[in-house]
Structures are given as C-alpha cells and as structure tokens.
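retry 2 of 3: previous attempt timed out while embedding MF3. Reduced batch size to 1 and resubmitted. Inputs unchanged:
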Amino acid sequence: MGRIPIKTSEELQAMREGGVILKEVLDAMERAVRPGISTLELDKLAESLILRHAGARPGFKGYHGYPATLCTSINEEVVHGIPSADRILKEGDIIGVDCGVLYKGFYTDACRTFLIGAVTPEVSYFVKITKKSLQEALKAVKAGAYVGDISAVIQKILEMYGFSPVIECTGHGVGRALHEEPEILNAGVKGTGPQLKAGMTLAIEPIASMGTGEVETLGDKWTIVTADGALSAHFEHTVAVTEKGHEIIV
Ligand code: MF3
Ligand code: CO
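retry 2 succeeded.
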C-alpha cells in the first residue's frame, strides 16, 4: 500500500479556496439544469466559471486525455459521461454532474445528482438515499477510524433501502493528484483498510444503482453505464479528516 499524504494547514487552506470555486460551479449547475439544456452548455458554463478565478483550472480536462470540465452522466450512465451538444436534458431525467478544480497545486473533486423537472417518486427516493449514504458515511470519518468503516456505511445504507453500490467505481484520496491513496470502495467491512489520520483529504463518492450494480464501459472508452440499464446516482464530497471528525472542503 502506498503512503497516504497528510496535508499541512497551508495545503488545506489552498484546498479550501479551490473548494469555494468548485462549490460555486456546482451551485450554478444546480440552477442551470432544466429540460432543453445540453450537457455541452453546462460544461461551457462550468469551465468559464472556473477560469474567472485567476490560477484556477478545470481538474478533469486533460486527465488521462479526458476532454471536458464536467462529467455529465444521465440516467443509466454511472460516471464519466462526456458533455455533448446533442445530449439534451428532458423532464424526468436524472443527471450526475461531477467536477474537479485545480487551484494552487491542489485538486478538489465533487459531484451532485440533480432531478430534471418532475421525476417518479421511486427515482426521487433513490437519489435521496444515495445522498443519505454519503451523509452517513461522512459520520464515520475521523482520525483513528478505518477506510473500511466508510465503505461499510455506504454499502449498508444503499442495501438497506434496496439499492446496489457500484463497486467498480471508488472514492479516493485527493490533493496534489486527483487520485491519491487510499482507494475508498463503495462496499466493505468496518475496521479494515488503512487507518485515517488528521490532515488526510478524501474524495468520498457513493455511486449507486437501482439495479444490480454491474457496469459496462461504452465504446467512447469513458462513459460507464449500468449493465442492466437501471438508473444510477452519484454524490461526492472532498473532505479533510480531523481529530474529531471531518471538514467538508467541497
Ligand atoms: N470524480 C471522478 C473520479 O474520481 C472524476 C473523474 S475525472 C476524469 O473518478 F477526468 F477521469 F474524468
Ligand atoms: Co472523485
């Protein structure tokens, strides 16, 4: 197992500042999503909001050749949907909008799933429970806890309500690199894995399916979809581990 970086207070401050920019982007996305808008329009808006801040850059663009600022994953798309002019949101869709910012040498990474207009009660409930799994998982974060504690909570909440964690997609440490140690599985066993220390920064990202949780990658080599066509939802926060718990960076 590689080493898990501990951030200094100056480094945490840089991440907080990047987090403020990323939160502004996600808040703007929340206001912008509506039937009729394309995912490319969302991407352009997100990129321009980031570039307004001197020294800030989209965190995903160019990462292993990824072509955009956002990952926009609609309905059965799980993660890494590529924004496109011909992907137009329509009433009843759900969309995961995932974004990263690079600022003062540090990445922050966060995602929210939005409902487009009126969705069915079942779908709205599914998205709510996926969000709840992240909120509950955050309560497991504190110095001395284990990475497996986070994974176990995500799995427990999703399965308790009849949904499936997508175990092929994972959370991760985040900082000077977008993806650092540790890997944070979306299912696991309490008390296992690396122990958390204050100053670690983690991107915790439950990714759930209304179906089996099995996934496939499309021919674009990026978009991951559910194998059974079931809807998928995704929420992600970047947090810092503290002695008593956690601090949400974004
Ligand atoms: N939050 C996503 C992840 O951690 C971001 C993907 S970035 C991409 O995997 F550049 F690879 F798309
Ligand atoms: Co991430």
